[in-house]
Write a structure and sequence with these properties.
About 65% of the residues lie in helices and about 0% in strands. By secondary structure, the protein is mainly alpha-helical. It has one domain: Up-down Bundle (Fumarate Reductase Cytochrome B subunit), CATH 1.20.950. Helix 1 packs parallel to helix 9 and helix 4 packs across helix 8. The radius of gyration is 24 Å and the shape is elongated.
């Protein structure tokens, strides 16, 4: 039962630590107001050419036209395709995107494992020769698992070698970032080792069935190592820089694109006042003139 309980714990830890990270980001002090354009949430077509509500005469007296759809679309371009890296550093994008795409495809693989487990619990065999739904689930799981694991392994190894060999990247790469890439590579590589002995990912469906039925997971040494590595990386990711899957939302929505007008007696005015009165934790020294370097507040 250890592996079954560990699998549950890993999933719950990933969700819980991710939500904690969301809370921490949401409670951070207000960022510096950049008001840089273009901002995709500017409605009326102004976001396409870098315009803003400042173009309107007496804009403070007029209702704002905000396009939440434009904001979501632009954010998804970055989150799903890493658009900015593609535009600015195309040669690095290929390796970096392989890593991220591998993770996305492995989420699809995980979903298909749950579908396969549910299918087998319903009495339908999941196999290549079954035909119909069982074969469809089998091949979808097979493709997602193989492609995802290979992309993740190639991307993690490629990024590790790129950071190790590029003098510019090497200056900004910490030991932890090297470790992160090796950790991801180890998870992908161990998964491929297990898959080599079970190309239909039957072990994956058996793990899910074990979790759904609270029964012991039968695993050999290779599978045990893979489950432990996979669970450990799920617990580890939300506590590291790899949690940028949470931070990106706040970086775009609350930093780059925050252009809510700061008008008298407005909600934004209160937020600004709170930011100006912010005091760092005890022992932290700031040079900004509005922050008292001798403050002892623990806010």
């Amino acid at each position: 039962m250890f592996l079954t309980l560990f699998a549950y714990f890993s999933i719950l830890a990933f969700i819980g630590l991710t939500l904690l990270k969301v809370y921490q980001f949401a409670k951070m002090p207000m960022h510096g107001r950049w008001e840089l354009y273009p901002v995709p949430k500017e409605g009326g077509g102004r976001g396409h050419y870098g315009g803003s509500y400042y173009e309107e005469k007496e804009w403070w007296n007029k209702p704002r036209n905000v396009s939440h759809a434009g904001e979501v679309i632009d954010m998804l371009k970055e989150m799903l395709f890493i658009k900015n890296l593609f535009v600015n550093q195309r040669r690095q994008w290929w390796i970096c995107y392989a890593l991220h795409l591998g993770i996305y495809v492995l989420f699809v693989w995980t979903f298909m494992l749950f579908v396969g487990a549910g299918t087998e619990l319903a009495g339908i065999s999941v196999a290549a020769a079954t035909g119909g739904w069982g074969s469809l689930v089998y091949y979808a799981t097979f493709l997602a698992g193989v492609v995802g694991a290979i992309l993740l392994a190639v991307g993690a190894a490629g990024m590790f070698l790129k950071r190790l060999s590029d003098d510019k990247l090497k200056k900004y790469t910490t030991p932890q970032e090297y470790f992160n890439l090796l950790f991801l590579f180890a998870v992908a590589a161990s998964g491929l080792v297990v898959w080599s002995g079970d190309i239909g990912f039957n072990y994956g469906r058996e793990i899910i069935i074990g979790m759904l039925t609270l029964s012991p997971i039968q695993a050999d040494a290779a599978l045990t190592i893979h489950i432990i590595l996979l669970g450990a990386v799920m617990i580890y990711i939300p506590q590291t820089k790899m949690s940028h899957y949470v931070g990106k939302y706040f970086a775009f929505h609350k930093v780059l694109w925050e252009n809510e007008p700061n008008l008298k007696n407005s909600e934004m005015e209160e937020v600004v006042k709170g930011a100006l009165g912010y005091q760092p934790k005890t022992g932290v020294k700031w040079s900004a003139p509005h922050i008292n370097p001798t403050a002892t507040s623990d806010k």
